[in-house]
Amino acid sequence: MKFTTFILGLLLLPVCVFADNRQDAKMIREMIWAWDNPEFKNYQVPAGYENESAVILVRHQHLEATSKNRFRMNFMLFGDVNRELYYTYIDRRMVKINDLSALKAFAELTFRDETKTMGYLRSNKLKTIVGARVIKPDGQIQEVNVDDEAVSVTEGKKEKDALRKLAISGLQVGDVLDYFFCDQMELETYNIPPEVFTFYSSYATLKYSVHCEFGNKLTVEYRSINGAPEMKSTVDAEGNYVLDAEAQNLMKVPAYEDIRWASVYRSFPMIRMYVLNNASKLIYKSANARQSGVFANLPYEEYLNDSKALLAAQEKEMIWMADIDKNVKKTVTAYIAGHPSLDFEQMAVLLYDALRFHWPDNYNYYPRDKFVVKLQKLLREYHVPHQLLFATSRFGVRKDDVVSDDDIIPGLLANGKQVFFFNNGYRYAGEVSPIFQGETAATVEVVKYAMKKNYGIVGAIGEYVMPVSTAHDNLLASQMDVKLCGDGLQELTVKRKLKCTGSMKDDYWQLLLYEDWDSEMRKALGIEKTLIEELKEDKSTRKRIDEYMSIRENRKKSQEEAVQAELTAYHEQEPKSVLGYSFTGVGVTPGNPVWEYEVSYTLDGLVKRAGKNLILDIGKLIGTQWQPNELDEKRQVDAYLPTAMHLNFEIAMEIPQGYTVEGLDALSFEYTNDYGSFHATCKKEGNKLLVSVNKIYTHAYVPVAGWKEMLLIAKKTNDFQGRSVVLSPL
């Protein structure tokens, strides 16, 4: 407890000297280097790790938090008593550097020097102290002078992070790097940042341990998932909660961003922890929030009640949304007048679209919870059968692994089958996002909002399994008309038509302008006035028309750049020129659910001359495809694709006059397994060469045992992509 006493004593110093001088940093470094932990004194790597790029000999995370009452004067509050939270987080690692790759990775450390964020008449501060030392093979220890050698990489303006970078001088292959980050936080209006203790690493890790000490006025909630060890919980002599966990020889995995189709929270062992200052009256929390104590692996229903209570808390704020109500009602009333025979499903779509269209784009003041409550009240007002919906994401934790209301996303289920979430992006009303498909969501029949009740919303609870789309629901259909042109017929003119449905639209939203969405929504809602006409009507916006027009022109330029970037990514090379493009469908309404795009351009580099013959790399016209790498070959975890999907490519190439085509047999492929297929056919019709390619993934979830079959589909695709045809003179 000596270290604890030292840190807490330091944190209770006046704010003006809150670890902001070299002496404080020096004292903390000396204390951490002196930890009584034998692993940090053993610099030898056991046999068998010689081929590892780097070996983390030991990693230890140390967390401490306490709170105290502090009387403060404020010129607006005239004095109040607030429970502040002081928090220290230390992450220390000792790494053996075995090769140049690891040397490059650990040669620099980047860290926040100071962060300050503002709450309501309050401030929250964070300071980071860094220590680093190099242990040479002969045992000599060289400490890095952080205070003099770290350089600023940002100016750190008010309420922004001030970042610093530290080059580890003298570090060489064969050395051991011993370094730590120590974050000190003084929090008034925020809880401690959520912690995730990862029992896996991209480097071989021999020993990993976590030690936490929390004041007994705090609320600690955590869950071990995916095989992570359970924490040992005790209480020390001062009444603090103490939690410990450790493991040896951690699961070695690549950096998660390098793993294709990974769902990190469902694949890798970790402990997720929330440390909540629920005793503070300044921190927004559920009426159902647990008071002080340690709570491990709470049932899902507890967090569902949190979500219900937080959602109910939005109900009392609806009075501030009179303008939104007025606009929505105006749109809905006018539409019903022209369509008096709407059924309940059509009415649900109308209400969602009208509210989504008129909803402000400031999500800080108008978040998803308010949207859900407002939509629920509209559905009730227009007698549309509905339930509240509480779902988890396929790329978040499983339903039974939630440890915060943040893991649960509220929405609505209308007519027993229409799903509505916000923000739904550019998806049309009722279109189920890939992140929810297949998840089992909780449903709640809303009887009333009971603000004085912990559970917040009164109503029966049930379940709803979110629908799962098929491969053909998620279609990318590409049609290409190709001509050889230019000097020597070594340039291609391409007219490409692209149609996307379902999740395949997601890769192309960046090509869409807000004005495209706005125009399509006005058409669907029967709003006759254009955006410009509405801006001219309002005195407050009329004077900003010129500014808006300038912004729109800049967006058009950005769209042109996005089209260029899309073609470059598709072909892995820039087009020689873009001749034109247009959008014939934006896919944002149920009446127009397909995204359609046409673009014409010229391309070189795919045709080569070999004597009198021309060789066309026709396989490359299906665009960039997944090329499995070493990480893919050694995959250890299940795959979570966005959805099942179907990619279809139809290529029609005009055979130049005076030429014939050879090598067509090499373009015929047929391969199918349990997880998908790759088929390609080729034929001549008159002066056209017609190529049809279909690549299908039939499952959105692929267990690691079936991953090899996914690799085979990819390899068949790449085999086709490398094929060419020969154009020979007659």
The CA-CA distance between the termini, in Å, is 90 Å
Number of helices: 15
Q: What structural class is derived from the secondary structure elements?
A: alpha+beta
Number of DSSP strand runs: 39
Report the biggest beta sheet as strand number plus sense, adding barrel if it closes.
12 strands, mixed
What form results from the Cα inertia axes? globular
β-sheet strand percentage: 35-45%
Helix content: 10-25%
Low-confidence stretches: 1-20, 68-82, 118-122
CATH-scheme architecture of the largest domain: Sandwich
Return the CATH topology of the largest domain.
Immunoglobulin-like
CATH domain class name of the largest domain: Mainly Beta
| Average pLDDT level | 88
Specify Rg, calculated over alpha carbons.
30 Å
Tally of domains: 3
Summary of the model, kept short:
With 730 residues, the chain is of the alpha+beta class.
Could you walk me through the main structural features you see in this protein, from its secondary elements to its overall organization?
The strands form eight sheets. Strands 1, 2, 3, 4, 5, 6, 7, 8, 11, 12, 14 and 15 form a twelve-stranded mixed sheet that branches. An eight-stranded mixed sheet has the order 28-29-27-26-33-37-36-35. α7 (322-338) crosses α8 (344-358). It is of the alpha+beta class. The protein is built from 15 helices and 39 strands. The protein folds into three domains: 2-298, Immunoglobulin-like; 308-468, no CATH class; 472-509 and 559-729, no CATH class. The termini are far apart. The relative contact order is 0.07.
